[in-house]
Design a protein that fits this description.
By secondary structure, the protein is of the alpha/beta class. The protein has one domain (23-119): Rhodanese-like domain (Oxidized Rhodanese, domain 1), CATH 3.40.250. It has helices spanning 2-19, 25-36, 47-51, 89-100; strands spanning 40-43, 59-60, 80-85, 105-111. It has a 4-stranded parallel β-sheet with strand order 2-1-3-4, with helices on both faces. The radius of gyration is 16 Å and the shape is globular. The N and C termini lie far apart (54 Å).
Length: 121
Amino acid sequence: MFKRFGLVISAVLMLISGVFCSVTKSSLETVAEKLKAGALVVDVRTPEEFSTGHYPGALNIPVDEVEARLAEFGDDKGKEIVVYCKSGRRSGKAKGMLEAKGYKNVTNAGGFSDMPTAEKK
Protein backbone atom coordinates (compact mmCIF):
# COMPACT_ATOMS: atom_id res chain seq x y z
CA MET A 1 0.00 0.00 0.00
CA PHE A 2 2.77 2.46 0.87
CA LYS A 3 4.56 1.68 -2.39
CA ARG A 4 1.40 2.48 -4.35
CA PHE A 5 0.92 5.69 -2.37
CA GLY A 6 4.50 6.68 -3.20
CA LEU A 7 3.85 6.10 -6.91
CA VAL A 8 0.74 8.26 -6.77
CA ILE A 9 2.62 11.05 -5.00
CA SER A 10 5.44 10.83 -7.57
CA ALA A 11 2.97 11.08 -10.45
CA VAL A 12 1.26 14.10 -8.91
CA LEU A 13 4.59 15.85 -8.35
CA MET A 14 5.60 15.20 -11.96
CA LEU A 15 2.34 16.72 -13.18
CA ILE A 16 2.76 19.76 -10.95
CA SER A 17 6.35 20.31 -12.05
CA GLY A 18 5.21 20.12 -15.68
CA VAL A 19 2.79 22.97 -15.09
CA PHE A 20 5.51 25.21 -13.68
CA CYS A 21 8.44 24.18 -15.87
CA SER A 22 10.27 26.71 -18.00
CA VAL A 23 9.16 27.59 -21.47
CA THR A 24 10.35 25.32 -24.30
CA LYS A 25 11.75 26.59 -27.58
CA SER A 26 8.57 25.66 -29.47
CA SER A 27 6.36 27.48 -26.98
CA LEU A 28 8.73 30.48 -27.12
CA GLU A 29 8.18 30.55 -30.88
CA THR A 30 4.42 30.38 -30.28
CA VAL A 31 4.66 33.32 -27.86
CA ALA A 32 6.66 35.31 -30.45
CA GLU A 33 3.98 34.62 -33.06
CA LYS A 34 1.22 35.75 -30.70
CA LEU A 35 3.14 38.92 -29.85
CA LYS A 36 3.65 39.74 -33.54
CA ALA A 37 -0.08 39.21 -34.09
CA GLY A 38 -0.91 41.82 -31.45
CA ALA A 39 -1.74 39.76 -28.37
CA LEU A 40 -2.49 41.59 -25.16
CA VAL A 41 0.62 41.24 -22.97
CA VAL A 42 0.11 41.23 -19.21
CA ASP A 43 2.89 41.22 -16.62
CA VAL A 44 1.43 39.71 -13.43
CA ARG A 45 4.40 40.62 -11.21
CA THR A 46 4.26 43.32 -8.54
CA PRO A 47 4.56 46.98 -9.55
CA GLU A 48 8.04 47.01 -8.00
CA GLU A 49 9.16 44.09 -10.17
CA PHE A 50 7.52 45.67 -13.22
CA SER A 51 9.43 48.92 -12.66
CA THR A 52 12.77 47.07 -12.90
CA GLY A 53 12.01 46.07 -16.50
CA HIS A 54 9.10 44.76 -18.51
CA TYR A 55 8.03 43.81 -21.99
CA PRO A 56 7.19 46.89 -24.11
CA GLY A 57 3.49 47.68 -24.00
CA ALA A 58 2.76 45.16 -21.25
CA LEU A 59 0.01 45.95 -18.78
CA ASN A 60 0.95 45.45 -15.15
CA ILE A 61 -1.85 43.58 -13.41
CA PRO A 62 -0.46 41.75 -10.38
CA VAL A 63 -1.76 38.19 -10.09
CA ASP A 64 -3.68 38.98 -6.91
CA GLU A 65 -5.58 41.71 -8.81
CA VAL A 66 -6.46 39.75 -11.95
CA GLU A 67 -10.06 38.94 -11.02
CA ALA A 68 -10.75 42.47 -9.76
CA ARG A 69 -9.37 43.97 -12.98
CA LEU A 70 -10.99 41.69 -15.57
CA ALA A 71 -12.34 44.71 -17.46
CA GLU A 72 -8.77 45.53 -18.48
CA PHE A 73 -8.57 42.20 -20.33
CA GLY A 74 -11.56 43.23 -22.44
CA ASP A 75 -14.85 41.62 -23.34
CA ASP A 76 -13.51 39.53 -26.24
CA LYS A 77 -13.00 36.15 -24.57
CA GLY A 78 -11.37 34.82 -27.75
CA LYS A 79 -8.57 37.37 -28.05
CA GLU A 80 -4.97 36.31 -27.61
CA ILE A 81 -3.53 37.10 -24.18
CA VAL A 82 0.07 36.44 -23.14
CA VAL A 83 0.83 36.50 -19.41
CA TYR A 84 4.26 36.36 -17.77
CA CYS A 85 5.84 36.87 -14.34
CA LYS A 86 9.28 36.07 -12.92
CA SER A 87 9.32 32.29 -13.25
CA GLY A 88 5.99 31.20 -14.73
CA ARG A 89 4.28 30.22 -11.49
CA ARG A 90 2.17 33.37 -11.02
CA SER A 91 1.44 33.62 -14.75
CA GLY A 92 0.24 30.00 -14.62
CA LYS A 93 -2.11 30.97 -11.81
CA ALA A 94 -3.30 34.03 -13.78
CA LYS A 95 -3.87 31.85 -16.87
CA GLY A 96 -6.04 29.51 -14.82
CA MET A 97 -8.06 32.40 -13.40
CA LEU A 98 -8.65 33.89 -16.84
CA GLU A 99 -9.64 30.55 -18.32
CA ALA A 100 -12.08 30.03 -15.43
CA LYS A 101 -13.67 33.34 -16.45
CA GLY A 102 -14.09 32.13 -20.03
CA TYR A 103 -10.99 33.47 -21.81
CA LYS A 104 -10.05 30.91 -24.46
CA ASN A 105 -6.61 31.96 -25.79
CA VAL A 106 -4.40 32.63 -22.80
CA THR A 107 -0.72 31.70 -23.05
CA ASN A 108 1.60 31.41 -20.07
CA ALA A 109 4.89 32.73 -21.44
CA GLY A 110 6.73 31.81 -18.26
CA GLY A 111 9.13 34.32 -16.79
CA PHE A 112 10.16 37.74 -18.04
CA SER A 113 13.52 36.23 -19.00
CA ASP A 114 11.62 33.71 -21.17
CA MET A 115 9.97 36.43 -23.25
CA PRO A 116 11.39 36.96 -26.72
CA THR A 117 14.39 39.27 -26.31
CA ALA A 118 14.22 41.36 -29.47
CA GLU A 119 11.79 43.87 -28.07
CA LYS A 120 12.31 43.90 -24.29
CA LYS A 121 13.05 47.17 -22.56
